[in-house]
Amino acid sequence: GGPRPMSMLAPPAAEGMGAAAAAGPLRRAGLEVELVRCLEDNYCPIFHHEVSGATLVTDTPDATPILAALLARGWTPTHILNTHHHADHVGGNMELKAAYPEVRIVGPRDRVYDYPGPYPAAGPQK
Question: How crowded is residue 19: how many other Cβ atoms within 10 Å of its Cβ?
Fold first, then answer.
């Protein structure tokens, strides 16, 4: 079958988050998105680029459902993007890093809750 954007959510939640409107433009860009529900009130968007194989996990509230989604789709995460340092955004980093040692974790250098690197160097990136 084809891409299943935001399929980890019940249809009303996915529709409320604009899944139908986003599906076409994402597919045209070669992207698939899995929106994974974590904890009580968090979601983890996983973006996969079909051509390059790059897979970006955005925040990691809980590794268990994220790992299940990655395995179900056959995706290997290449990057974890942490939007900020709160535990409900970085709580699954260590377990995901253990499962996928090559994954690069990108997030703010200034943080309260510890999470693993590598962190990007200060200044422009190449």
Answer: 18
pLDDT digits (tens, 9 = 90+) for 6-32: 444 444 555 555 666 777 888 888 899
* CB 69 within 8 Å of CB 58: no
Name the residue type at position 94. Answer: M
Q: What is the pTM of this model?
A: 0.72
| Distance (Å, whole) CA 97 – CA 114 | 13
- Whole-number Å distance between alpha carbons of 12 and 29: 25
* 30, 53 Cβ separation under 8 angstroms: no
Which parts of the chain fold into alpha helices (H)? 11-16, 19-28, 63-73, 87-90, 93-99
Residue 22 contacts residue 3 (beta carbons within 8 Å): no
